[in-house]
Amino acid sequence: MKKTFLTKAKAEEIASVYPTPLHVYDEKGFCDNADDLYDAFSWNDGYKEYFAVKATPNPTILKILQKHGCGVDCSSLTELLMADACGFCGDEIMFSSNETAAEEFVLAKKLGAIINLDDITHIDYLKKHAGIPKKICLRYNPGGDFTIGNRIMGNPADAKYGLTRPQMSEAVKRLIAEGVEEFGIHAFLASNTLGNDYYPELARILFKTVRELTEETGAKFVFVNLSGGIGIPYRPDQEKNDVHIIAEGVRKAYEKELLDHGICGVKIFTELGRYMMGPYGVLLTRAIHFKHTHKEYVGVDACAAHLMRPAIYGAYHHITVLGKENAPCDHTYDVVGSLCENSDKFAVDRPLPEIEIGDLLVIHDAGAHGFSMGYNYNGKLRSAEVLLHPDGTFERIRRAETPADYFATFDFMPEFSQYKR
């Protein structure tokens, strides 16, 4: 049984001020999680978590995480602008992008961000448009299948990201010639992994590559960025990863591949989004319709425009009917939204307690890649975001969209002037 940080009473209180659907975040939950992550990697001087802004791009959350030691991982111009507005600068920003526009490199260089190059051709492109910085990172793609034991975790050869191993050597040599003094290496080989062996195996690969590149080129590598990939248990029968076991596995690889070969002082970076925020946000929605046809449907006031993962991935998100946590799950429903798309289903054939009109439903694990992946298909408007504080108070940290927002890009047309604020 998955539990939620929202009680029915608190959810009704929030919904009486900010109508559903809305995304609600548990401040205590994600702050405690950040502190636990830093504790796990405390063995590494200079460890830093660069929170993946794409997961939950909200300034209030970014500023809170900054107080807990986090930097930000940005992948676009607007994410860089948000980081700058929130007070992040210099080495607090990691810029990991692909097929990058010139203006994005220019802004990243201006902010002093650590630029993570995704392709060897980007060396000349960066030089032309922004100039080569003294510190730079290279994204590595080893190709082939990424395996742990006898399990295939992913297929990097099919991924569009990163440099091949020969390109890594060439890129380092070229960048040294361009005046680069410090290097980092980055890779992302698997997504949403469960089990504690992904990071240690990825770390082993990257540490070994750092050692080889150091021997080949004499380059000074100052950090290894393990990126994201640590998953969360979306299903109630799945176990949470143990970040302390993960960090210990990384430490052992660090000692074997780096320290035992005389390479010291390399910092460990991570770029976790899902792990940092996923379990600490929910989509709160209310049952507003029933449909009794070939199946039993519960229609809610949220739709895939507010949480698209079930619709596009078939992803499982657990659902709790507030106030009925202990009731038997003796009814089977499809929980659906109002989009003109048959894939707009939060759950299919889901055993749940009997639902009544007006019941509040919590859709779990929507704290990362939830609101941020929202869209306006069918003219749907994105919801408000609310932060629940440890003392039980709450605040709106993003207002809900209005028709004026939807029509804002038509503001040059007189017929839409009535929707201006």
| SS-based class | alpha/beta
Q: What is the CATH C-level name of the largest domain?
A: Alpha Beta
Measured by DSSP, the beta-strand proportion falls in 15-25%
Largest sheet: 9 strands, mixed
Could you give the distance between the termini?
A: 45 Å
> Helix tally?
12
Number of domains: 2
Please give the number of β-strands.
19
Overall form: globular
* Overall pLDDT: 96
So, the CATH homologous superfamily of the largest domain?
A: Alanine racemase
| CA-atom Rg in angstroms | 23 Å
Could you please say which CATH topology of the largest domain applies here? TIM Barrel
CATH architecture of the largest domain: Alpha-Beta Barrel
Q: Poorly predicted ranges (pLDDT <50, ≥5 residues)?
A: none
Helix content percent band: 25-40%
Q: SSE layout and pairings?
A:
Blueprint: H1 8-17, E1 22-26, H2 27-40, E2 48-52, H3 59-67, E3 71-74, H4 77-85, E4 93-96, H5 102-111, E5 114-117, H6 122-129, E6 135-139, E7 146-148, E8 151-154, H7 165-177, E9 182-186, H8 198-217, E10 221-225, H9 243-257, E11 267-270, H10 274-277, E12 281-292, E13 296-300, H11 309-313, E14 319-321, E15 331-336, E16 345-352, E17 360-363, E18 384-388, E19 394-398, H12 403-406
Parallel strand pairs: 1-18, 2-3, 2-11, 3-4, 4-5, 5-6, 6-9, 9-10, 10-11, 13-15
Antiparallel strand pairs: 1-12, 7-8, 12-13, 12-17, 14-17, 15-16, 18-19
Helix pairs in contact: 2-9, 4-5, 8-9
